[in-house]
Amino acid sequence: MDNNHLITTENLTKRFPMGQTELTALNNINLTIRKGEFIGLVGPSGSGKTTLLNILGTLDSPTEGSAVVLGNNTAELSHKNSAKLRNLQIGFIFQTFNLLPVYTVYENVEFPLLLQKLGKSQRHDMVVDALKWVGLADRAKSKPAQLSGGQCQRVAIARAIVKKPALVLADEPTANLDAKNSHHILKTMETLNKELGTTFIFATHDEKVIGYLKRQITLDDGQIANDQVLKG
Amino acid sequence: MLAFKLALRNLFGAGLRTWLTVIVLSFSYVIIIFQQGMLDGWNKQARRDMMHWELGGGQYWHTAYDPYDFFTIEDGRGPLAPELQSRVDQGQATDVLISQASIYPDGRLMSVLLKGIDPNQTILDMPTAPLVENITEIPALIGRRMAEAAKLRKGDVVTVRWRDANGTFDATEIKIVEVMKTNVGSIDMGQLWLPKSRLESMLGVENMTTYLVLKRGSNATDTVNGWVYRDHAYLMKELTEMIKMKSVGGSIMFLVLLALAWLAIFDTQVLSIFRRRKEIGTMIALGMTRQRVVRIFTLEGAMHGILAAAVAALYGAPLFIWMARSGWAMPEMTDDMGMAIAERIYPSYSLGLIAMTTAIVMLSVIVVSFIPARNITTFNPTDAIKGKTS
Fold first, then answer.
1. B166 HSE (CA, 13 A, CB side)
2. Cα–Cα distance between B111 and B109 in angstroms, integer?
3. Which residues from chain A sit within 8 angstroms of residue B290, using beta carbons?
4. What part of B 281-310 touches A (C-beta under 8 Å)?
5. Is A114 in Cβ contact with B6 (below 8 Å)?
6. Considering only CB atoms, which chain B residues are within 8 Å of A117?
7. Contact assignment for A59 to B382 by CB distance below 8 Å
8. Domain ranges of chain B
9. Among A114, A181, B286, B351, which one has the highest count of C-beta atoms within 10 angstroms of its own C-beta?
10. Alpha-carbon gap, residue B32 to B255, rounded angstroms
């Protein structure tokens, strides 16, 4: 495998049982994603964007074909090893933020580091850095309920990047945000991509996002309809 | 350690929900300990009273004495062996002579046991001193239950009919000189306590004894020529059986209360897991294994138990101390129902009882917390992230 290849999929197919029949969510997806890319998976609802993200994030496994993520074939990973891979190498950003409600902003961002069993002072430095990147250092003690939607999503970004992962998967990160907040979030991610070299993959059908993408992969009915590089 | 830290964080983060469960659970702790303490207190009191009023430090029985066989009561008596007589002479024991008789209160016939005892004895707590009264009638001491059953009061005179050593029937008047209040039913119902010397005269015997009561703390030896030693274990066999029966009832109550605790935790866990599906999915996405999430949820449940123990200690400890000091007044009715019970029960809260109860509740809380939490292992994280159940 090319050292620059972060993700490779071959004939990746995912089917879900639907009563007596099966629904094909992904059909023979062949993809190669390199380090540092800023990719958007676009397409209408039900086109398979989230399913593809879930498989790349080792939260789901393919029915047929393979997905090799960071050198690991997702179908062969045990629960324990896929959890380890997610914890160390993959960051997630969700449409509904998915912050832990009883934790403060600081504790939410610290959570992935706790799983890595890092020392307290190291964790502190990393959390403070992450919060500075997203401009929320002054809200460290707030609870998610005290923040706006945009701020919550920024906390989610901080949580995804605090461990400096190789890959960040974002599922409709701007869907619940207004235009101003969407641009702010996308700017933040773009900066992180440039400064940290983190690979970002978005699932989106938000037109605002498309302007920021370096590469756009269009999915339609579980298949790649178009894969084009937008920015060099 | 991490699971513990996270569970603690979640627990306190849940605020009121946590405290409501904790308070319900703490009730179970307090009521279980209270109820068990009452039973223990009652048992201890019953044993103590039996020792002080009836059994002393153990008894020597005439070999032919069988308290359950009324046909041999008259045969179960004899002169004390010299070793035992010397104990009586030294004030280390008191002897009792038993005979069957009938009394006729208000013209009704009632079978009784006449028990002769030294009025000056100090071995038992029975108030035998009034038996020294020098009166024409034979002085008799009866218990409150006997007085109620025979409708006799202090000062009443009643006819007694018995058979002497030769088998001849005789009758005389006896006077109730004292009605004693005792919790020990076996020295009360169907019994009249007389001065032993008077009973011996009535029966036409001399220096005859049915059983000997040793002073508490006496060193007892085994069988002495013609006299069998009966220790507390033997003498309290029936009480022990009764306590066992009571314990079964107590255990049912214990289980009911424990079930309440289980329900509180189970309910909280099921609701918590249902409500926090999204959180569970997020934890898995962030790199937690499902087993680790199960551990956190189980620990959260278990911590309810720990917190409840602390809360229970907070209000339970002063309550228990006060109860142990002032006792719990028992209604008169309980005694009338045939249960030998003191006017006040002083609950006994031993360290063992508290530790045992805490351990049992904690252990069961852990198990009950785990049962719903283990379902997390079957969660599909992609559904859970969206708050869906798969």
1. 6
2. 7
3. 79
4. 281-290, 292
5. yes
6. 2
7. yes
8. 2-52+238-385, 59-230
9. B286
10. 9
> ipTM of this predicted complex?
0.91
pLDDT in tens, B110-165: 999 999 999 999 999 999 999 987 788 899 999 998 999 999 999 999 999 999 88
d(Cα B336, Cα B147) in Å, to the nearest integer? 13
How far is the C-alpha of B199 from the C-alpha of B180, rounded, in Å? 20
Side chain identity at residue B36, one-letter code = Q
Query: Per this entry, what is the length of chain A?
Result: 232
d(CA B7, CA B303): 8
Distance, in Å, from the CA atom of A181 to the CA atom of A70, rounded to the nearest integer, reads: 31
SS3 of A13, please?
Answer: strand
pTM of the model: 0.73
Residue of A228, A219, A230 whose CA lies nearest to A29: A219
Query: Which of B105, B80, B111 has its CA nearest to residue B94?
Result: B80
How far does B287 lie from chain A, in Å, by closest CA? 4
Residue A116 distance to chain B (closest CA, Å): 9
Q: Give the model confidence (pLDDT) of A86-118 as tens digits.
A: 999 999 999 889 999 888 999 999 999 999 989
From the candidates B294, B378, B385, which should be mutated to test the interface with A, based on the most A CB atoms within 10 A? B385
The A residues from 65 to 104 touching B (CB cutoff 8 Å) are: 79-80, 83-84, 86-88, 92, 94, 96, 98, 100-103
* DSSP category for residue B348: -
Measured in residues, chain B has a length of 390
Cβ-nearest to A87 among B13, B282, B287: B287
The contacts of residue A54 (CB under 8 Å, 6+ apart) are: A60, B382
C-alpha distances out from residue A70 to A32, A67, A76, Å: 11, 10, 13
